[in-house]
């Protein structure tokens, strides 16, 4: 896997942040993330997964986390994709609750308590920009909204998941007891990993709740439009072929 910095035992909350060429954002941002978690969830672990960055992300993160035993870095080469990075972080986690979020903090940290509160009666809680109550503070460009609509139609046709208004928001929480076995079954390494995980969760009969969140589009998306469309078709098709039947997870 590569460099793994730090080691922790069981704890209340594990937070996973996948990062690819995020040195400029994560450098100044990690201090605020650690402070927020320390105030609200003293028994936490923060796992930053450097997904083969070329801009010195690993060094910046390592320096920012120095002296904080509740935080660690997983770093590897080459770049494998966001799905691979999140899966690596989840499988390395030990928390009773596991949350992953994007490095750009497009959903603010203040939404974390609301998301985790819903785990009292759900196995998985997914942040949603598609529900009417969502607080969309900065909308993405028109071409990305059009691409999202097209993606949804293809997704519904190939894998279902029609009951969810937003499967792609990078802000999701899981009970740890289901997160690790669920992600251990995942095989999609890039952006369709969210769909694969939710598809597997549906097949396993898990309780999934969708929660409206505050969200703002941030510049610097790593998705290339046409490459993304091609990969979307390929991965959605793979999900059905990789997981044709019911999914059996360990008892809750």
Question: What shape does the CA trace take?
Answer: globular
> What's the arrangement of strands in the largest beta sheet?
1-4-3-2-5-8-6-9
Order of helices and strands: EEHEHEHEHEEHEHHEEH
Q: Please identify the structural class as seen in this structure.
A: alpha/beta
> Proportion of β residues?
15-25%
Radius of gyration, taken over Cα atoms and rounded to an integer in Å: 17 Å
The rounded distance between the terminal residues' Cα atoms is 29 Å
* Unreliably modeled segments: 1-9
> What is the multimeric organization of the chains shown?
single chain
Mean pLDDT, to the nearest integer, reads 88
Which key phrases capture this entry?
252 residues, alpha/beta, globular, disordered N terminus
Give the gist of this structure.
The chain is an alpha/beta fold and 252 residues long. It has eight helices and ten strands.
Describe the structure.
With about 250 residues, this protein is an alpha/beta fold. The protein has eight helices and ten strands. The strands form two sheets. The protein has an eight-stranded mixed β-sheet with strand order 1-4-3-2-5-8-6-9, with helices on both faces. A two-stranded parallel sheet has the order 7-10. The longest helix is centred in the N-terminal third of the chain and has 18 residues. The N terminus is likely disordered.
Set out the fold topology.
Blueprint: E1 3-4, E2 11-19, H1 23-40, E3 44-51, H2 57-65, E4 71-76, H3 82-92, E5 95-101, H4 112-117, E6 124-128, E7 135-138, H5 142-159, E8 171-175, H6 176-184, H7 193-203, E9 208-212, E10 214-216, H8 225-242
Parallel strand pairs: 2-3, 2-5, 3-4, 6-9, 7-10
Antiparallel strand pairs: 1-4, 5-8, 6-8
